[in-house]
Amino acid sequence: MPNRRQFLFSALSAAAASATAAWAARSPVKIAHREGNMLRVSSPGVYELAASIPGLSGVEVQTTRSKLWDRETVLTYKREANRWKMRTVSMGGSLPAGGSILITGPAEESLRKTIHAGEILGASVVLVPGFRETCPKMDDEASYGPVVELLKRLAPVAEDAGITLGLELSLTTDEYVKLLGLVAHPAVRAYWDATGTESMVHNGEGLKGIETLGSSICQMHLKNGNKLMEEPGLIDWTKAFPAIKRSGFEGWFAFETPHATPEACVEQTRRNIDYVMKFLG
Predict the structure, then answer these.
(1) pLDDT-derived band of residue 179, with 50, 70 and 90 as boundaries?
(2) How far apart are CA 79 and CA 47, in angstroms?
């Protein structure tokens, strides 16, 4: 069995050669938006709203808030996604309020149900969150060990459903490398949020994670606080987007940007997409 360094480096090296050429030749820019930031109240109408935004082609749904463990509800979301020709790309909100991957029994039950709902919707990623007090401490095996075992149990389940478990955690890049190496399964990868990482006081880690994890990142959140992406913020996107392009990342981008109204969501997301495409188009 490969050790954690061998696992990560093999994952990175597989796509490292001619990464920029590979991007240009194979990978379209795929942009989605997070349901929870598009509508104040969950609704399958999110797909109609998403379809009204030029350049947007997917939605990250909010699993528990939108009651997507319920079969009739998830099938309604599926019908509306098909109706508006809009992909459900990922399952956010995979744990209920108060849930934590540190409480592994309930977390496993929740994630199994979310994987099942994601399979019905055709999602490719289930977001697995862990922030601050709900994030494993990577210097304490008593904290991270049970999480590693949980992810090892769930990885084959996700893989069988065509899904990747995307870890969005308040870890440094080096801690991500350690955790991914311990799990050592291709269906468990990083879900990168450069701005979120910077906001959790990992100065410089937002860009470092892109450069280090690169093609082993399954999906990325894009946000800039309450500002448009083109405005100054915690991340210098004029540096981050070229780094993404060099990295060989081929996953979806999902905006996690706040909007006061659905109308503002349409206009601001249109401007944000135009800005992203200046660098990646």
Answers:
(1) very high
(2) 10
In angstroms, the CA 14 to CA 57 distance is 28
- Residue bearing tokens 């095996």: 141
In this predicted model, what pLDDT tens digit does every residue of 219-235 receive, in sequence order? 999 999 999 999 999 99
Please enumerate in sequence order all residues whose Cβ is within 8 A of that of 49, keeping only pairs 6 or more positions apart, or say none.
Answer: 38, 39, 262, 265, 266
Six-digit token string for 122: 């055709």
Q: What is the mean pLDDT of residues 99-113?
A: 98
Backbone φ and ψ of 172, nearest 5°: -75, 165
Q: Residues for the chain: how many in total?
A: 281
Amino acid identity at 225: G
Return the number of other C-beta atoms located less than 10 Å from residue 75's C-beta.
14
- CA gap 260, 265 in Å, rounded: 7
Is the Cβ–Cβ distance between 12 and 216 less than 8 Å?
Answer: yes
Task: For residues 257 and 268, give the distance between their C-alpha atoms in angstroms, rounded to a whole number.
Answer: 9
Q: Tell me which residue has tokens 């905006």.
A: 255
